[in-house]
Amino acid sequence: MVLFSSLFSASLSADTVNSSTHREHDFDNNSIVPFLEDQGFTGSAISGEGMSFTNSSTGGLRLKLTWKESEYDGSRRERGHELKANVVDDKEIFTGFHWRIPSGQSNNILNKNTIIWQLYCWNSAGCSNWTAHVELKSNDDLYLNYRAACVSSTEVKIYDNVSTNTDHAFQIRARASGQGNGRIDFKRNGSFEHQETNISFGFGSWSNDEMADAVIGVKMGMYCFDTSNYSNNEVRILYLDNLGSCVRTGSVGNSYNLIDPRNY
Fold first, then answer.
1. Of 4, 17, 87, 253, which residue is most buried, by most CB within 10 angstroms?
2. Cα(25)–Cα(28) distance, rounded to whole angstroms?
3. Could you tell me the pTM of the whole model?
4. What's the rounded mean pLDDT across residues 88-112?
5. Angle at 205 (CA atoms; ends 203, 207), nearest 5 degrees
């Protein structure tokens, strides 16, 4: 069993970037650094808390997330297993990752509703909550939800019929705005699947259309929020690899390139 502390002290691999504005990792050194475990932990052994490393189909290792209903204790933190990308900004965030759903293994993730990516808005005024998320629904489709306050969200479909046993290379650009010129762009394998433009999302007050008292940041993994739909002893499994997040760095194209999982 690998201890949580030893994972953080492990040396970083060649395919790792660790700065306050750009972090990426390919998990090939059995570590989640420079990302942070944010959900599902109850002790010091991360490998016993739903996170482990397994061989990747593209070479090296990938992160395996395994959520078990039997471990749910009624608390929010035990509704899933997530990583915090550990990059924040008051305007714009880019995220890239390889994402894979394994078939078999008694995997129930395709029969449920599970959030796989969340854009949080940490707001000093008191509304610390998500402002956008991507949800895998039980009909095997991906949906984007976004909102400009702690109210009901706008929901749009971004991708039909997610295939299993396939490495999907996703990139997401999120630019917050309180003046209706925000956008969330969703790429898969280098091509745009969906662009939601001329929108408002993000909480708090604004100055020159930048958040004045809040920042946005990304969480990745599984958040199994659909507690009323849990099945006794169900298991949900998901693979992540080549995860990256950065603030706007130069051009939009350059920022996409920095977190493109196909470049690792």
1. 87
2. 8
3. 0.90
4. 93
5. 125
